[in-house]
Every structure is written in C-alpha cells, then in structure tokens.
Design brief:
Order of helices and strands: HHHH
Distance between the termini: 52 Å
Helix content: over 70%
Strand content: under 5%
Number of helices: 4
Largest sheet: none
Shape: elongated
Radius of gyration: 17 Å
C-alpha cells in the first residue's frame, strides 16, 4: 500500500515539474511550485530524512514562494492578471500593452 502512495507522489511530482514550465499565468505557476515543494517534503519524510523535509517545507514552499508573491505584487503582475481575466469574462477582446 505504501508503495502505491510513493508512486502516486512521484507521478504528481513529475506532473508538477512539467506543468510549471508550461503554465502561462505566473500566479498559477507559483502555486504549482508550492505544491511541488510540499510533495517533495512528504517524500523526504517517507525516505526517513525529517531534517530535509523541514528544510524543503520551510524554504521551498514557505520562503521562496513568499518572495515570489512579493515580487509579483511589486511588478503588479497579480493586478494585471485579474484585470485581464475580468476583461475576458465581460466579453471584451481588446488587448492592453
């Protein structure tokens, strides 16, 4: 049973790694990166390495993702993404530059 769980985690890890490269929305790619780090920390626990699991969770999912969110906020990418989604939802086909 635990082997099936390990294989599912590895498949999810590979899917996260591939999908973060193909995602066009920056906010979505950060969330995928966070999930990658959390799954990797679970894998470290299963490999009986709790020190690496804590470090992966703290640095990978915590600090790095927080820095990415702050960077997106500073460059106003989050507001632009929300505005573009609202324009698409209202039926406007104009593009902003």
């Amino acid at each position: 049973m635990i082997d099936i769980f390990r294989y599912l985690l590895l498949i999810f890890l590979v899917l996260c790694a591939i999908s973060v490269g193909f995602t066009k929305n920056l906010l979505t790619s950060i969330v995928i990166f966070m999930s990658y780090s959390l799954v990797m920390s679970v894998i470290w626990v299963l490999l009986e390495s709790p020190d690496l699991a804590i470090t992966e969770a703290a640095v990978g999912a915590g600090v790095t993702s927080l820095l990415f969110f702050i960077t997106l906020k500073k460059i106003h990418a989050i507001e632009q993404s929300i505005a573009e989604e609202r324009e698409r939802g209202e039926g406007s086909h104009e593009t902003k530059k």
